[in-house]
Amino acid sequence: MIPVPLMKLWGDAYAVRAPAIKIQYQGSTPADGIKQLINNEVDFCSVDMPLSVEELNKNGLIQFPFVLGAIAPMVNLPHIYIGQLKMDAKVLGDIFLGVITKWNDPAIVAMNPKIQLPDAEIVIVHRFASPGVKTMIGDLLAKNNPQWKAMKGDSMGGNWPANAIEVKSPQEHFDMIKKNPYSIGYGSIPLAMKYGLNYVKMKNVAGNFVSPNNENVSSAALNAKWEGDKNFNTVLTDQPGAKSWPLSNASFILMHKVSANPERSREILKYFNFSLLYGGLRAFESDYTPLPDTVVALVRTSWKSIVDEKGVPLYKN
Fold first, then answer.
1. Domain boundaries, the chain
2. Within its chain, how far is the Cα of 268 from the centroid?
3. How high does pLDDT run on average in the chain?
4. Does 71-214 match 4-68+230-235+248-305 at the fold level?
5. CATH topology (fold) of 4-68+230-235+248-305
6. How far apart are CA 87 and CA 200, in angstroms?
7. In terms of CATH architecture, what is 71-214?
8. Strand ranges (DSSP E) for the chain?
9. Which pLDDT value is given to residue 26?
10. Could you give the CA distance from residue 72 to residue 186 in angstroms, rounded to a whole number?
11. Burial class, 178, CB count within 10 angstroms (exposed 0-12 / middle 13-18 / buried 19+)
12. Which residues of 146-167 are buried (b: 16+ CB within 10 A; e: fewer)?
């Protein structure tokens, strides 16, 4: 969920305010972005899963969230409309493990008593993922399905049921769901909507079945305990709150704690300050959710730890 189009929109908006400054952002894989940042080939990069405190300290980096999004399970079920099907993370994990193989399994029926579920085999569509690489949906399943945690940890890699269809890209993922009746997969809400796919309502930690809308994604960020983690090492899955969407996600910016180019770093912080304070509408227009004001305030406070080589903070309110 690296929001390349949003970064461009924010860069264009900031250029109107500061014509002499040009912010360029070129999308890459998180691993490539981190490598380029460590090698001082770029001034910042973006990742969709937060780095651990150990990783940050090892490479002299700081991270902060800058926009929110969500993914959801997607299904292709005849006569089932968008958001009608309900599920929890335990059942979702059992489906992906091949423990639950039919749509009319008692565990699914129990959460959907008013739906006539078909006596049909579940077709799983999943993206290729390296074993051991932490993912947002793997994190949610590990928190709620002991068998998933034991077999896959918090990743989506490793072995899948023999009848599962593996794909390489988000577009191929949604294509295969659309082509295969009785299938289930997962992906970002904006792209799924463009493909006309049906998302599943998920049970959150408050026990409510909720939809992946902006309000519920924002609720997850509002209820997360960011203050207890100075490095923002927080995954937004399964956050408290009556409305919180359990597969909410934040995208993070990585920068050096000690800048080798203070003037450039100072301008980048000004750009993010402007974007976080005034770029909310453009985030909505790009199908993302802006950070709540309380989280923005925490992010701005964290910037005081970005310094030049003499230890002088680069950001001033």
1. 4-68+230-235+248-305, 71-214
2. 23
3. 92
4. yes
5. D-Maltodextrin-Binding Protein; domain 2 (3.40.190)
6. 7
7. 3-Layer(aba) Sandwich (3.40)
8. 45-47, 61-76, 86-87, 123-127, 165-167, 183-188, 198-199, 201-203, 209-210, 248-256
9. 75
10. 5
11. middle
12. eebeeebbbbbbeebeeebbeb
d(CA 271, CA 314): 13
Q: Helix-strand-coil percent breakdown of the chain, rounded to 5?
A: 40, 20, 40
pLDDT digits 0-9 by tens, 184-222? 999 988 888 888 899 999 999 999 999 999 999 999 999
* Contact assessment for residue 113 and residue 228, using Cβ atoms and an 8 Å cutoff: no
C-beta separation of 122 from 102 below 8 A: yes
- The residue type found at 196 is G
Residue 41 burial class via C-beta count within 10 angstroms: exposed 0-12, middle 13-18, buried 19 and up:
exposed
* Count of beta carbons in the 10 Å neighbourhood of residue 27: 13
Residue 241 CA to chain centroid, in angstroms? 18
Reading the block at residue 105, the tokens are 């399994």
- Nearest Cα residue to 155 out of 191, 127, 187, 117: 127
Here the contacts of 108-114 (C-beta below 8 Å, separation 24 or greater) are: 111/86, 111/87, 111/203, 111/209, 112/85, 112/86
175-193: per-residue pLDDT in tens? 999 999 999 999 988 888 8
Q: Is the pLDDT of residue 1 over 70?
A: no
Residues constituting the chain: 317
Q: What is the dihedral of CA 6, 283, 266, 294, to 10 degrees?
A: -150
Tokens 């958001």 correspond to what residue? 83
Structure tokens at 306: 């970005």
pLDDT interval class at 18 (50, 70, 90): confident
